[in-house]
Amino acid sequence: MKNIFTIILLLISFTGFAQKAALEGKVIDEKTGEPIPGVTVFLVGTTTGAITDFDGNYLISNINPGTYTVQFSFVSYDTQKKENIVLKQGQTLTINVQLKEASVEIEDVAVKAKRIENTDAAVITLQRKSAVLANGVSATEMAQTGASNAAGALRKVNGVSVQGGKYVYVRGLSDRYSKTVLNGADIPGLDPERNTVQMDLFPTNILDNIMVYKSFSPDLPADFTGGFIDIKTKNFPDQFTFSFSAKIGYNPQANLNSNFLSYQGGRTDFLGIDDGTRALPAEASGYIPVRYENNEQLNQIGRSFNKIWFPKTQMSGLNQKYTISFGNRKNIGDKVLGFFAGASYAYDYSFFDDGFYGRYKLTDKNSPVLSREYETEQWQLGQENAIWSIIGGLALKLNQSNDISLNIINNHSGQKTANSSYFIDYRDNEDLRQRRTIEFNSRNLFAVQLKGTHTNEHLNINWIASYALAGQTEPDIRYLTNDVDIRNGDTVYFVNKSNYAYPRRFYRDMNENNYFGKVDFQMPAHFLSEGSKVKFGLSNTYKYRTYRQKQILFSENQANLYSNMADYFANDNIDAVNGVYIQASEKDDNKNSYNGVQNIFAAYAMFDTRIADKIRVVAGARFESVYMETTDLFQNEIINNQGVLNEKNILPSVNIIYSVTENMNVRLAYNKTLARPSFREKSGMSIENKTGDIIIGNPELKQSTIDNYDLRWEKYFKPGEIVSIGAFYKDFKDPIERSFNTEAINPEITWRNVKEGRMYGLEAEFAKKMDFVSFLKNFKVSANFTYVYSEVSVDEKELNSKRYFDPNYPDKRVMFEQSPFIVNGTLSYTNLKGWNAGISYTFNAEKLVIVNPTGIPDVYSTPTHDMYFNISKKFANNLSLLFEIKNILDYRTIYYYSYNNQEYLYNNFGVGRTFALKLSYKL
Amino acid sequence: MKTNYFNYLSAVVIAVSLFITSCDKGDEAQKENETKAGVVLTDNGNGIGTRTLYKDTTYILDGFVFVNAGQTLTIQPGTVIKGKAGQGESASALIVARGAKIIAEGTKDEPIIFTAEADSLNGNIGNNVRGLWGGLIVLGKARLNTIPAEQQIEGIPTTEVRGAFGGDNDADNSGVIKYVSIRHGGTDIGAGNEINGLSLGAVGSGTVIDYVEIIANADDGIEFFGGTVQVKHALAAYCGDDSFDYDMGYRGKGQFWVSIQSDDSDRNGEHDGGTDPEDGQPYAIPTIYNATYIGVTTNKSIITFRDNAGGFYYNSIFVNHQNGIDIEKLNSVQHSFKQWEDGNLKIENNTFYNVAGQTTLDNPNLFLYAKGEGATDADNSALATYFTSKGNEVANPSISATNPVPANPQTGNLYPYNDSWFDAVNYRGAFGSDNWAAG
Question: Which of A57, A831, A864, B62 has the most Cβ atoms closer than 10 angstroms to its Cβ?
Fold first, then answer.
């Protein structure tokens, strides 16, 4: 780490302090006197420029002395030029300007410097001019809402909700239906159980903006239905920038708590990387004999495992996060070289010791109540997260029309979890059982992206080539369940294996290589109409994934009683004949390991034209050809576990934008999109989760096709102000839903294509400054609402079993994990003295979270109310101090069954409020 | 001379498993073993085929080996079949699929033995060693009370169609299993499940099972998954879980069932009515006469009736248990206690001794009681009245795990034998004066 900082400091000293001129000032609205953020300030004839910040301020430093024309431009304002500005060496000149709102529509503003998309006004402008339905969040907004990563930042986007702090749901549709790309290029998701990318891996200090596209257009990949999320990392800056921040957080439940639950790990856990402590012992890496094959060797291998099976309480520290970034640009002859580098590191704790979970069952169809199967007496869980990232970017502007840039990014997260609970098994003599699990999950995403833009008046070419490697390793996951009983006055512990599995250790590894290439061509199409464009392009994605699992069971010949569970694993108890022995099966491991390969080739063509003065039509079609194959490693000639998907689709798209007035659009869209099974879903592998459920893939899964219809009215006011109301309808064919193998004696969760599904939605959004009331002039309110009605066919087998208990059970139900109502609201305050404050609130109505077989009612979550507050003050232009409170309302995750007008708790836990203080320095 | 095998067995097993090998056969089998390499039985999806296994050969089961539908596996008396060690996908088991037949007809002198590969049949493996291989699984077409009416036997992936069982033919015939000993099985098949010694999935009443013993299985001795199969002379000893387990609507008959437990065994009888749904029909109401269940004073209970199980136990003996027989009562409508109220669960004309430390009938609820969220004092007093009025007695038959033949025969006050399938013997328990298990 030390070396990295040294290098960073050296780079800063090399690039930062030449004796040049600078230009600064403030841009305000001529009529209202309000500062205008997002204005491009640009020295004509050069590539030097800047963008105004949230307060309308700009600064261009590092200017070679000389005479310049300075141009100020912004969408919906008249461009203004200040000529014959003389800059002398060492001078900093101030130019304040007032911009006048444009009277006519401005076509693509002639911004020769890189278009800046990192203020909310700029993002709303993007949104307005976008051919498709889009919403975005800018770097400024991220800073303002205090979001520390992309997941937090996305929360305020219309129709977006974030699950578990990681997964993005757009319009309430589960992450199966959203797709995330990085700078327009495909990246692998890191969670093998999910279809999408975890957003908490992207710290906001490396982000420029995030756009969420809600309707398809042929130049986007077709495998999204809810939202297409494009995370854009920072571009090379207009001037030298340097920023540093340090943040500490305190959660009374989790931090500085001597009862925090953790376990003995390795020395590099703080980096989210295992130092080898959790590696499979060398003795166990070869063939593990079965009993009586070589008992001596089997005992030796059994003894070679560490004895760490138990969580322990220990004092926790404070949450902390550090970020650093810097960038600059340099003129090399007539070329411009820009670069950007950033790094971040965070470590935080989360803990509860008052959690509850219970399981219930409907035992007969006439029963007025559910019967209790088991309930916890005490459930505690401690989790530590290490997240860090490094990003580097290099951009070369060869001339006015050719840009090439290179991005390298590495994100890492490590999660260490200790879990402990006591529960009473009411099905079996009210036995008291104890369950302890310790886990470590380390995920890494590395990506290199090379892209270029080549423009002239006839043709615009954008291309990108990227390689990404995602890895997840879960070394030495340990699950231990045992009974606790009193025998002859003594407390005894034993493994009652007829009721649950033997103690086990798992070693899991996943790697996914992702190669992506894309080229887009755009050219004027005057033959259609003035200002028309045609766009066409090609792309190809190739992915290769390997997933490996190894399981070691610590079985026992017969259930012995122990005065302490540690004795179970003691060396002298490891005895293949009468004691504990390990069991491993290569066949099982192979069955639970798979390879997956996927290639998607796509080609598209579209046009963007005005068929009438005010009617813009963006239409076209995309062709996608997918080949996907999953194979588990279990070479079983009897059962075909190979999943193949080989499809070709043509996906039409029509987006019509009717510009009622300059600032008002009505949009209408029809698109066809796809949803494909993930590798994990399509592989035949089965995996057992920590509560003993078996989750098994389905190699027969097909892709789903979706017809999407969208209608939206939107009105734009001053920069950053918008009102929109929209409606949508989606028609799913063969949607993939979670289901059950009803023939399995022990419940097996799987996925199946069901017949059809439908979604109807309404959404509204507004953002408004409160300047029409004088004492509220520094406030801004923004809010969005999404209402969704969904229904999906119930799998036929599942329906048969449901109808035994309830003959009227409908053949359709709400979509899995689909929230019917989402509200996001933010009230923010900004004044010119450097004060910023904001309070934001997210509401998610109850949703179906667990589908149960037969007579067990499905499980719903209670609504969530997530409120966040922050306040910050800038000092001396460089320093700022921020205070925030997360989860002000202290909401808890509560899932429940509902039967016969009575609710039964499935689980209930909360992670409490977090307070944090952040100091940032920005040059 | 006695075989080495017996020298290593504890006296406990000697008494009860004498029938499994007669004097010379063990030696013979050993000789064959030395002179003739074992024949490995595997399955490439076509099943084992219609074939005979001969007693002069030792067979090694490698993996799941099916007798496919339409095939008949005949096993000569005296044949030894050994399962390879391994768990999960590597487990070895013989599976008689739906529509297939097994004719495993041993004799008193020449039983058929299923054991672990490591077992040299000379006592090298202690009688408490469990879980070395899988077990014997028989699947049939009789009815289940599940939804759907066809299920997949545990441990076999749902994609393997030969693992399916259940149908609509209660008279289905899966063949003959007679004088068969199954030892040291019950390996782990994933998610904490083990293979039972003898799993009977929807096996129909046309099947003959008589004189079968399960020794040291890691899971249950015999588990019935629905069906109507009738089992006479069955011994389950030293199993890790329950001795006799039923679920999914078992409606067969049983007579002369013997359960002998070790310290860590679960219940002698675990009787579930249904799982998905619990109140599925037909209800589980088997009839069992002349059981002898010998417990250990640390086990959970003699029998648990739950998940809407019914069933009849007559003329049986239950000794040395920590707890008596419990009947589940929930706050729902249909449960095992309701089955008792409806006359579908009967515990009558049985002898108990040293159950919950009781040697008298002063506390009938220590022998038979209601349990669960819905159980009330009134339920228990109803059960107490029932228990004392239906011919149940507390008396010492003077039996033990080492000698299950009563020194003090219980011959009075018998429940009548209403069905010709049952041998109308004049005693309670599985043994009269003759130890058929030692035969």
Answer: A864
